[in-house]
Design brief:
The protein is mainly beta. The protein has one domain. The protein is built from no helices and eight strands. It has strands at 3-8, 14-19, 26-29, 32-40, 44-48, 55-59, 75-81, 84-92. An eight-stranded antiparallel barrel has the order 1-2-3-4-5-6-7-8. Strand 1 and strand 2 (14-19) form a beta hairpin. The chain is globular and about 30 Å long. The model has no long low-confidence stretch (mean pLDDT 91).
Length: 96
């Protein structure tokens, strides 16, 4: 898998991610390449704040043990930063 989207459930906003050619196992957000989704052994597929490195998003409905490759990143994502949180659906897709 080379690309996928995160679609926000509450309003349909779509973020596009593509495989990072410089770092295997990482996907960069098209409009903000400082935001990356990576796989971590302890947490599975996650997004961290680019400055603080705080965990701000993660795959919610797939156990870490079942997150073997990028295709397993598809499912429900939950993000939280400060007082905002959202639910997204990840799906295979082009980066436009």
């Amino acid at each position: 898998m080379d690309a996928f989207t995160l679609t926000r459930r509450c309003d349909g906003l779509v973020y596009h991610f593509a495989r990072d050619p410089q770092m295997p196992g990482q996907f960069l957000r098209r409009d903000r390449p400082d935001l990356a989704i990576t796989w971590e052994p302890a947490y599975g597929w996650v997004m961290r704040d680019p400055v603080s490195r705080a965990l701000v998003g993660r795959l919610w409905d797939v156990p870490v043990a079942d997150q073997r490759d990028a295709t397993s990143a598809m499912g429900m994502w939950v993000t939280a930063k400060h007082d905002k949180s959202y639910i997204y659906d990840a799906a295979h897709g082009a980066t436009e």
